[in-house]
Amino acid sequence: xxxxxxxxxxxxxxxxxxxxxxxxxxxxxxxxxxxxxxxxxxxxxxxxxxxxxxxxxxxxxxxxxxxxxxxxxxxxxxxxxxxxxxxxxxxxxxxxxxxxxxxxxxxxxxxxxxxxxxxxxxxxxxxxxxxxxxxxxxxxxxxxxxxxxxxxxxxxxxxxxxxxxxxxxxxxxxxxxxxxxxxxxxxxxx
Length: 190
Description:
mainly alpha
């Protein structure tokens, strides 16, 4: 069918076209609900309904009984939807926010600063006496209670508390010292 014949069919017999347009306007919401139920994407549902109505207008000469218009439109929409699904079979619909979260990364400066802080913590932790390092690792890294640490190390709970307190204090001082004098990274000004 040539383009001129399509245009003639679309805009010929104005009275019938007006009647069909009014009927299509009434059916739009029902078609949209059905399309959304099938594809779960608002934009795709709108496109599907519009494509369905356009195809129904093109085939308006085939409509003999307007009582079956709902079934006629649903059939067109189903076929259109299946065509779209076949065409988009290799594509996967996804939420834009999920993509943004997946691909968002900190800048290299932020990553380097975080890596440097981790290295400072490792160095500071390694420089602590074993008893303090042991107690801090058991409480902060493993999540043991003071009583459990006392049982593990076979020391009084007061000694465990003292080692943890002194160790954390010493760790904080050492980290500040390492960050102050051992940095290779100069943060950019904002």
